[in-house]
Design goal:
The chain is α+β, with helices and mostly antiparallel strands. The protein has twelve helices and 13 strands. The strands form two sheets. Strands 1, 2, 3, 4, 5, 6, 7, 8 and 13 form a nine-stranded mixed beta sheet that branches. A four-stranded antiparallel beta sheet has the order 10-11-9-12. Helix 3 packs parallel to helix 4. The structure holds adenosine-5'-triphosphate, (R)-mevalonate and magnesium ion.
């Protein structure tokens, strides 16, 4: 890789089943999306570190010397297995002029950046003098893992800048992936970044952002699905804003208040993930309609459960009603409370029915699109793969 810099990307994700339950030790099934976050890092020199995050309206620049002092102030023995402490985050907030209880997208993005940059540079090298810009095809805060894709890109780029991971890209190659061991390191640091943004993440989103494909995740254990059929999924963004951190905290509160009522619901969600995995692994790669009634029923049951644990929203109820009126089954995906829903499109759904459903969803003010699933995880790109459109967007940001 030339010293000029690097370009990395990581995919968003769709959780088929197991959101929220996965935070409490149950299984989740998740697939990587064909929508990605990109990060370009350029070695700057001049002792400055510059970050541009156009998706959340951030443009910040610091003296590397100033960041070194800050790092030494919060220095502990930083490690990829250590959570950021409240005290460390308080010092970073004060430094960046962020209110103690701030939860705005730009504040959380800066905080995650500062933590990851200082922690990684403390462990592996020095604070790098670089220019970083991050942009995304993912909607922010809509349930598609934008925070994890951001954290995975940051982890890969900062580890690379500190020479803690190699440069797998060979001359003439457009893209390359890191080794399993390096991806494990990227994933662990991305998890710490997710902790800054989410408070108490399960780790499923950063696992998908790192490894890509389709996987089962439970208590940190990642298993690739044996076989993933080509599922057609319609994604719908209700555009209702919500915060994963707040929703995850709300579920925890409900479980503590009504353990005997909520724990069986989480067990049932776990059984749904199990059942869905068995069906997916039994399905032929090419879609076959006979498996779909079970998948659809599992969507319906889980959507009810997610309402019971308090993460539904009237906009998501509406989404489910609209698609049901066209014979299609939907559930929320990610943290819920608004954000995105997914609709299963069986091979025997007529193009007319799908088009009519899309039209009615758009008439509700929602945005919907079909996208590929099972995309590759964190990837290093040659900088020549930046197309004109992207270069223009970078110049504008
Ligand atoms: N492209 C980006 N640039 C900078 N920060 C980002 C970007 N994308 C996401 N973020 C950060 O992640 C936060 C959104 O994370 P949140 O977990 O609430 O939503 P999500 O990850 O999109 O959904 P879910 O966690 O349910 O899948 C934003 O508020 C911002 O701080
Ligand atoms: C809601 C949740 O289960 C998924 C968010 O995409 C939170 C998490 O697993 O960290
Ligand atoms: Mg998130």
């Amino acid at each position: 890789m030339p010293e000029r810099g690097l370009l990395v990307s990581a995919p968003g994700k769709v959780i088929l089943h197991g959101e929220h339950a996965v935070v409490h030790g149950k299984a989740a099934l998740a697939v990587a999306l064909g929508l990605r976050t990109f990060l370009r890092l350029r070695h700057g020199g001049g002792g400055r570190l510059c970050v541009r995050l156009p998706g959340v309206g951030v443009r910040r620049e610091w003296d590397v010397a100033e960041l070194r002092v800050l790092r030494d102030r919060i220095a502990a023995d930083f490690d990829e297995s250590k959570s950021p402490s409240v005290e460390q985050l308080d010092v970073l907030k004060e430094f960046a002029g962020i209110a103690a209880d701030a939860s705005a997208p730009d504040s959380l993005a800066i905080l995650a950046f500062l933590y990851m940059c200082l922690a990684i540079s403390a462990k592996y090298g020095d604070v790098p003098s670089v220019d970083i810009v991050v942009w995304s095809e993912l909607p922010t805060g809509a349930g598609l893992g934008s925070s994890a894709a951001y954290a995975v890109c940051l982890a890969a780029a900062l580890l690379h800048a500190c020479r803690a991971i190699s440069c797998p890209l060979k001359d003439g190659e457009a893209t390359a992936r890191w080794t399993e061991e390096e991806m494990t390191l990227i994933n662990s640091w991305a998890f710490q970044g997710e902790r800054v943004i989410h408070g108490n993440p399960s780790g499923v989103d950063n696992a998908v952002g790192t490894w890509g494909g389709a996987l089962r995740y439970q208590s940190g254990k990642i298993t690739s699905l044996k076989r993933v059929p080509t599922l057609r999924i319609l994604l719908t963004n209700t555009k209702v804003p919500r915060s994963t951190k707040v929703l995850v905290a709300g579920v925890k509160e409900k479980i503590l208040k009504f353990p005997a009522i909520m724990n069986p619901v989480l067990d049932s969600i776990d059984a749904i993930s199990q059942e869905c995995q068995s069906v997916l692994e039994a399905m032929p790669t090419n879609p076959s309609p006979e498996y779909y009634p079970v998948l659809e029923e599992l969507f319906d049951i889980n959507q009810h459960h997610l309402n019971v644990i308090g993460v539904g929203h009237p906009s998501l109820d509406r989404l489910c009603r609209v698609t049901a009126s066209h014979g299609l089954h939907s559930k929320l995906t990610g943290a819920g409370g608004g954000g995105c829903g997914i609709t299963l499109l069986p091979p025997d759904a007529t193009p007319l029915a799908v088009e009519a459903a899309k039209r009615d969803l758009c008439a509700c003010g929602f945005e919907c699109w079909e996208t590929d699933i099972g995309a590759p995880g964190v990837t290093l790109h040659s900088s020549s793969s930046l197309n004109a459109e992207v270069l223009h967007a970078l110049a504008e940001s």
